[in-house]
# Entry
Amino acid sequence: MSLAITGGYNRSRIHPQKFTLLVACASIVMMFAAFTSAYIVRKAAGNWLEFELPSIFYVSTGAILLSSILLHASYIAFKRRRAAAYRWLLVAAALAGMAFLALQWEGWQAMQAIGAGLRTNPSSSFVYVISGVHAAHVLGGIAVLSVALIHAFGLPYKLTKRRKLRFEMTLIYWHFVDLLWIYLLVFFMMQQS
# Structure
């Protein structure tokens, strides 16, 4: 008899929906790896406008980090059956996520102000495209957070496997877009030096 049948070990399985989410995240990573690779190749070709990334992008990084921390705290409160804390931390996380998007918009406006427009040079075009595609993924995360808010305030609090799984998937995706932005910001900073 195999160990699995006799109970010799406990096989840990990932939920199929979580696995699908992780595969989707991996494909998004590949897309951004392609973007950043294209950036490097195009920069080496010449005709490249050097400019410093506006500081508002660093402020937006703080907003998305704060949002991730608040969402994680909301998840912990959810698991500890602290319904009010879970709900209001979730609201705060969503607001910080929206602040990130607003600050990204401000960053694009600041780039325009220094003469680094969307069509000015390939260097600025890459920053708009890469940060814009990332912002679209954050917007998708905001939509997921909106559904989580509807569940948090529209349904009676109940810690079920299904709701816990849904929250864990939201958390995974949100932490993913957070880490992805940090990677992109560090990449842009390294390209400036």
Summary: The chain has one domain: 56-192. The first helix runs from residue 3 to 6.
